[in-house]
Design brief:
By secondary structure, the chain is α/β, with parallel strands linked by helices. The protein folds into 2 domains: about 140 residues, TIM Barrel; about 80 residues, Urease, subunit C, domain 1, CATH 2.30.40.10. It is built from 12 helices and 7 strands. The strands form 2 sheets. Strands 4-5-6-7 form a 4-stranded antiparallel beta sheet, with no helix packed on it. It has a 3-stranded parallel beta sheet with strand order 1-2-3. A hairpin with a 2-residue loop joins β6 and β7. The longest helix has 15 residues. The chain is globular. It starts with a helix and ends with a helix.
Amino acid sequence: MKEIQLVKKLVHCENIEYLHQLGMTSPRLVLAHCIWLKPNEQNILKRTGTHVVHCPSSNMKLASGFAHVPEMRAAGINVALGADGAPCNNNLNMFTEMRLAALIHKPNSGPKAMRAQEVLDMATINGAKALGWFADIGSIEVGKKADLIALDLNNVENAIPALEQTKKTPSIEVLASSIVYSSSPQHLKWTMVDGKILFEAGRVKTIDRSELLKKVRAAQLKINP
């Protein structure tokens, strides 16, 4: 809030208004957080196609406030999902971000706000759009790169109705609900990037875990000797 007051004192307008005056607002700009937006700033983002990244864990840890994501989405602004940086989050876990994004807006916007499928879209399709890569990734389509994950949805905590019991394929919302509300990295079977499996059976294939841990602990000593 102090930052907003400082900007207004220096340039005599709101943050987004100033960015717009500088010619920066466009589909090539991605803004994180956007917690204290005024209606006129929201309109600028909509008109210019500027993207927003919602970072719920960071906003909660830093007590920054809550972005008005349901309102932004209703206005037609592309809102993706992020985790900010490690110092502002401590746990760069997109499953946590999805669950929080689905939950924290309901007290103010109602139980139907931020449906699971909407949140899953924020973590996939909307993120690809914000990066300008939607032609290549973000959804499973012919001609796109095979950037995929496989999740085990056959556990007590995240099970979906069995096909042999219901005789019908679960809806997208049922699948999304299991992923957003009940799944976590422990349910991840593998991760594929451009057709190559980089993570499988709890192990990242491209990184030596023991060597990485040594570097992490060395870095910790530099920060807290």
